[in-house]
Specification:
heterodimer; A: 137 residues; five-stranded mixed β-sheet; five-stranded antiparallel β-sheet; globular; B: alpha/beta; Pyruvate Kinase, Chain: A, domain 1; 6 helices; 6 strands
C-alpha cells in the first residue's frame, strides 16, 4: 500500500477536509496534477473543477472546487479555495438556476467584456456542480 | 395635590419599565447574534492564516518581479474602506470607526468606500468622495460581499484612481473590548526576511507556472480575505457593542424605576399622613 500524506481543504467558512490520503488530483491552471506522498514543494493556482481524493483500497471521494490555491510542502497539501462541496451537498436546483441565469447574461451582454467573463465564470461553476451532482446519483 | 403627583410618578414608572423591556430584549438578541458572529470569526481564522502564510512565503521571491500591487508609487489620492454598522443603538461603535478613519485622513485627498448605512450617511452628508456604498451586509457578511468590495477597491487601484488602499474596521478583542483599527491593504508591504532563510526557501519551493502568476492570483485573494476577515470581525464587534450598550441601558432603567418607586412611596405616605391629620383635625374641631 502506498504511503499516505496529509491533505487539508480550507474555505473561508470552514475546514472542508482534513485527513490522510493516498493521492489527490486537482485541476490547476496548467492542467490536472496528482499529488502523492513526498511530493516536491509546490505552490500553484487551482481552476474551477474537482478535487479527487483517493484514500487507497479503492476508496475515493470527489468534491467541487472553486478557484483557489494549492500549497504542497513537507507537512502535506493545503488547498485554499473560495468554496468546496461534496456531491451530496450540491443544491442542484440552485446550480441549474445559476446556469440559466449565467447563460441569459451571456446572451444579453455580449458587448460588455467584464460582465461576460463574470458570467462565464458563473456558468462554469454551475456546470461543474451539476455534472458532479448528477454523476453521483 | 399629592394624588396627582402620584399618578404622574406611576405613569413614568410604566413608561420606563416598557423601555426597559425593549432594551432587555435587544440585549438578548444581540447576545445571540454575537455568539453566531464569533463562531464565524473562528471558522474563518484557518483560511485567513493560511493565505497570509502563503503570501509571506512568496513575497521574498518577487524582489525582481514587477507587480502593480507591490510597487510603491506616489500617493496622490488615498482610498479608505470604512466598515460601520447599518443601525445605531450600539454605543460608540459607528462613531469610533468613523473617527479612526477621519484621524488618518487629515489633509489628504481621499475617496471612501463606505460599508454600512451609518458610514454611508456620514460620508455622504459631509460631502466626501464616495466610490462605493455597501449597505445591509454588515450584520451577516458573506464572502461574496468581500469579493465585490475587494474587486471595486482593486479596480480603482489598478486604474490609478487611488494610490493606496486602507481598511478601517473595528477589531473584536473581547466581548467588552472593541478597538477601531486601520490597516494598509495596498500596495503590499514586503516584510524583510533574513537572507539565509530566503536562500533556503528558494531551493525548495516550486511555483507553477511561475511565482509571478501565483502572486497575480494570490494578491486579490489576500485582499478579499482581509476584507472578509474585517467584515466578520466588525459584525462581531457591532453586536458586542450593542449588547454592552443595551445592558447598561437596562441597568439604568432599573435604577430609575427604583428611584421612582421610592418617590412614589414617599408621596403615598405623605398623602396618607396628610389625610390622617385632616381627619384628626376635623374630629378635634367637632369636640
Amino acid at each position: 500500500m502506498a504511503k499516505k500524506f496529509h491533505v487539508e481543504i480550507v474555505t473561508p467558512n470552514r475546514i472542508f477536509f482534513d485527513e490522510e490520503v493516498e493521492k489527490l488530483v486537482v485541476r490547476t491552471t496548467t492542467g490536472d496534477i496528482a499529488i502523492l506522498h513526498d511530493h516536491t514543494p509546490l505552490v500553484t493556482p487551482v481552476e474551477i473543477g474537482r478535487a479527487k481524493i483517493i484514500y487507497g483500497n479503492d476508496k475515493e471521494r470527489e468534491a467541487t472546487i472553486s478557484p483557489g490555491i494549492l500549497t504542497v510542502d513537507e507537512s502535506g497539501a493545503i488547498l485554499l479555495t473560495d468554496a468546496a462541496e461534496w456531491p451530496e451537498e450540491i443544491d442542484l436546483d440552485r446550480a441549474e438556476r445559476a446556469k440559466k441565469r449565467a447563460k441569459e447574461r451571456l446572451e444579453a451582454q455580449k458587448k460588455n467584456e467584464v460582465d461576460e467573463t463574470r458570467a462565464q465564470v458563473s456558468l462554469r461553476k454551475a456546470v461543474n456542480r451539476i455534472e458532479l451532482a448528477k454523476r453521483k446519483k | 395635590m399629592a394624588g396627582a403627583g402620584m399618578q404622574d410618578i406611576k405613569r413614568r414608572i410604566r413608561s420606563v419599565d416598557s423601555t426597559k423591556q425593549i432594551t432587555k430584549a435587544m440585549e438578548l438578541v444581540s447576545s445571540a447574534k454575537l455568539r453566531r458572529a464569533r463562531q464565524r470569526v473562528e471558522e474563518n481564522r484557518p483560511y485567513f492564516e493560511k493565505i497570509e502564510e502563503t503570501i509571506q512565503g512568496i513575497l521574498p521571491h518577487t524582489r525582481e518581479l514587477k507587480n502593480s500591487y507591490i510597487d510603491q508609487r506616489e500617493v496622490k489620492k488615498t482610498g479608505y474602506i470604512v466598515i460601520t454598522g447599518d443601525r445605531g443603538l450600539c454605543g460608540g461603535y459607528n462613531t469610533n470607526a468613523i473617527k479612526k478613519a477621519l484621524n488618518h485622513m487629515e489633509d489628504r485627498e481621499v475617496s471612501v468606500i463606505a460599508i454600512g448605512q451609518k458610514g454611508v450617511n456620514f460620508f455622504r452628508k459631509k460631502g466626501y468622495d464616495l466610490d462605493g456604498e455597501f449597505v445591509s451586509i454588515s450584520e451577516k457578511p458573506m464572502f461574496s460581499d468581500a469579493k465585490s468590495i475587494g474587486k471595486l477597491a482593486m479596480e480603482l487601484y489598478q486604474n490609478e484612481m487611488i494610490d493606496e488602499v486602507n481598511l478601517v474596521y473595528t477589531e473584536f478583542v473581547s466581548t467588552i473590548n472593541h478597538k477601531p483599527r486601520l490597516i494598509k491593504l495596498l500596495p503590499l508591504d514586503q516584510k524583510e526576511i533574513p537572507e539565509e532563510m530566503e536562500e533556503e526557501r528558494d531551493e525548495v519551493m516550486t511555483y507553477e507556472p511561475s511565482a509571478e502568476e501565483v502572486l497575480e492570483y494570490l494578491i486579490p485573494k489576500y485582499v478579499e480575505s482581509m476584507i472578509y476577515g474585517a467584515l466578520i470581525d466588525a459584525s462581531a464587534s457591532e453586536q458586542g457593542a450593542r449588547r454592552v450598550a443595551m445592558e447598561s441601558a437596562t441597568d439604568n432603567a432599573e435604577e430609575m424605576i427604583d428611584d421612582l418607586n421610592l418617590k412614589y412611596n414617599r408621596a403615598r405616605q405623605a398623602s396618607i399622613t396628610q389625610e390622617i391629620s385632616e381627619i384628626v383635625g376635623g374630629a378635634e374641631a367637632q369636640n
